[in-house]
Amino acid sequence: MITSTTGPQPADFADVRATNLAVVLRFVREHAPCSRADIAASTGLNKATVSSLIADLIDRRLVRETGLTENRVGRPATMLVLDGSPYAAIGVEINVDHVSAVATGLAGERLLTWRRAFSGGDSVNQGMANVGAIVRRVVSRMAKEDRQVLGLAVAVPGLVDVQGTARIAPNLGWRDADIGGDLAKALRDPGFPIQVDNDANLAALAEQRFGAHAGASDLVYLTGEIGVGAGIILDGRLRRGRLGYSGEIGHVQLDPDGPACHCGRRGCLEVMAGVGAVLRKDLSPAEVQMEIEEAVRLARAGDPGTLATLDAVGRSLGKGVSILANLLNPEVVVLGGYYVPLAPWLLPAVHDELGDRVIASEAGGCQVVASTLGHDAAALGGAARVLDSIDSGRLPGGLSRIP
């Protein structure tokens, strides 16, 4: 049975086959090289069904055979691995002063990584026209490599609802922006699905699929950009909340007498542990990178003022992480963005706060680490979301139908 918003509905043959295709494809991705017999034994599908499904996946160029192996009991078996050579998934992150774009293959191999200067213009429409121009160049590059784009997912720094509308993107000055619809128009209806999500959510997906803790079932990603947000994965699934607004950890109040936050409150985590707390001044996005590099240089040189600032920021950050650890008990909290170069000086204070504030012993097993994915984690997470859609059964057609 398939449950929908209209109540339980009978699953037809196409539904069952699509589900089984996804099951087999995921198994090959996670266990390749593997044989048809391996798949049947592990999934519970009978051998005839597995053979039919594999033939379908080979036709779609999603799986390929690699030859025989004799290093096993019984007759030699034909081994299978992911193919996906005719396909690409695209992720894009819209930030205050730049757009990052990443294209990956089916196995997650990077085909392209771009970072381009960006001006949102005077309106969302102008901003989408600018983003659309960048995406068209990425799609054109994939076409030159004879790759069909499976989908595009766009990361936005702000509140994005479950329909993909950016309700509030304060650093971009956008409200109630139908980014997916506007981008589809800018791309002249590209023929592939466009999804939109919060940047922290997509970065969390990137960490779960590609990061140092790939496969973690309970993971939180904290952005370290101009704002501080959280992408939350629990029991292996991204958690967006009822309307899609989960993860606004940056506006949890740590000190009611603390510095004023742009949200109108005082002492929010974002104002006490964000980039502004490190630099202690308002800067343009282009200046932030240079100032962070200078802070790293001073910290390495043992500058007392810089070390004191980073210790204070680390303790505020640790208070925020402790709230997450007590509430969610994640396996790992990953620090991203500008937290990464500052991590050697932030993490000791974060760990001290966890030890003092988390009720469970040893912080409930929660680790806090710096991301290894770089500043384009959210864009990479966009590609991961497209690949997740493939894993869920939204497979491309057979080779003969590939444009």
UniProtKB/TrEMBL annotation:
CDD domains found in the cross-reference section: ASKHA_ATPase_ROK_BsXylR-like
Which InterPro entries does the record associate with it?
A: ATPase_NBD, HTH_MarR-typ, ROK, WH-like_DNA-bd_sf, WH_DNA-bd_sf
Q: Which ranges does the record mark as transmembrane?
A: none
Every HTH marR-type domain range: 24-65
State the superkingdom: Bacteria
What are the GO MF terms of this UniProt record?
DNA-binding transcription factor activity
Q: Which Pfam families match?
A: MarR_2, ROK
Give the protein family: Belongs to the ROK (NagC/XylR) family.
- The protein here is known as ROK family transcriptional regulator
Q: What organism does the UniProt record list as the source?
A: Nonomuraea diastatica
